[in-house]
Amino acid sequence: MSHGHPLGIDVGGSGIKGAPVDLEAGDFTMDRYKIPTPARSTPEAVCEVIAQIVEHFDEVKADSPIGVTVPGVVQHGVVKTAANIDRAWVGCEIEKLLEDRLQHDVVVVNDADAAGVGELEFGAARDERGLVVLTTLGTGIGSAIFNEGVLVPNSELGHFELNGVDAETIAASSAKTREGLSYEQWATERLQPYYRMLEDLLWPDLIVVGGGVSRKSEKFLPLLDLRTPIVPAQLENKAGIIGAAVLATRTQVRRQQLRGATSA
Question: Is 263 exposed, middle or buried (0-12, 13-18, 19+ CB in 10 A)?
Answer without folding.
Answer: exposed
